[in-house]
Amino acid sequence: MSFLQELTDREHVFEFLTQVKSPVDVRHGPILYLEDVNVSFDGFKAINNLNLTIDDGELRCIIGPNGAGKTTMMDIITGKTRPDTGSVWFGSRHNLLTMNEPDIASLGIGRKFQKPTVFEALTVFENLELAMATDKRVLPTLTAIMKPEYRDRIDEVLEMIGLEALRDRLAGILSHGQKQWLEIGMLLMQKPRLLLVDEPVAGMTEQEMERTAELLTSLAGKQSVVVVEHDMGFVRSIARKVTVLHQGSVLAEGSMDQVSNDPEVIKVYLGEEA
Ligand SMILES: Nc1ncnc2c1ncn2[C@@H]1O[C@H](COP(=O)(O)OP(=O)(O)OP(=O)(O)O)[C@@H](O)[C@H]1O
């Protein structure tokens, strides 16, 4: 079928519109598995024998002082940084160290950076629409022929992120918090299996933080969510299990109460704030 025929065939399902069919295999183990990972930058060990396991559907908070290796760890998972040694697996089938960044993203690993990067001149709805198309050049075509199921997905995501009432407003007029939720919504359009979220509540009001806590906890279960955050009040409000990184390794892991009472953690990290 030619591209022109595809365009005029109302029943044709474009490859770029099909949701990511994540083939990740979690039947016998975790969704994310890092073992003995090491990364050095000019001789400095940013990641040092790091071991980390995230279960399917889990919400995990990662904390740690500046320079602990949190960003580098996210960069390794998404393929931005290659470790010197170690293993990184997504389910039991996908060795992430053999894959590039776009392939890792298309497996269903979504990453939300600290700063919101929504398209301010587009409406909330259009931002979500755009997030669905992997080939951004086809957006005008996509808008003209959008199938009901894609509209349904946008409606579903609008409800999840609480922006239904603002669907036709330009993203540029949204508050900082609303932009962050919209960007999370853009990631959700592709139905990711694992979401990596970097400092989601930096710069948010108390109310926005509460709403973000509700959003992230509501996502867990359906997808796995890893949140890197410095705000301890926020971490306490959402955390089930917390991992404390220090000098590129796991220093402690457990409930917020367990890690915040751990003498090593108090010494190297929470002690900083006391
Ligand atoms: N590309 C790089 N080149 C050299 N050093 C780097 C590079 N990336 C990170 N580092 C160093 O590796 C260490 C870990 O950095 P990383 O950004 O992962 O820490 P972090 O826990 O995310 O810190 P923060 O909480 O401040 O964001 C730091 O000492 C940092 O300076």
From TrEMBL:
Keyword annotations: ATP-binding, Nucleotide-binding, Transport
Alphabetical list of SUPFAM superfamilies matching this protein: P-loop containing nucleoside triphosphate hydrolases
Superkingdom of source: Bacteria
TM spans (from-to): none
Positions of the ABC transporter domain: 32-272
Pfam families: ABC_tran, BCA_ABC_TP_C
UniProt GO molecular function: ATP binding; ATP hydrolysis activity
NCBIfam families for the chain: urea_trans_UrtD (TIGR03411)
Protein name as annotated: Urea ABC transporter ATP-binding protein UrtD
Classification of source organism: Bacteria, Pseudomonadati, Pseudomonadota, Gammaproteobacteria, Pseudomonadales
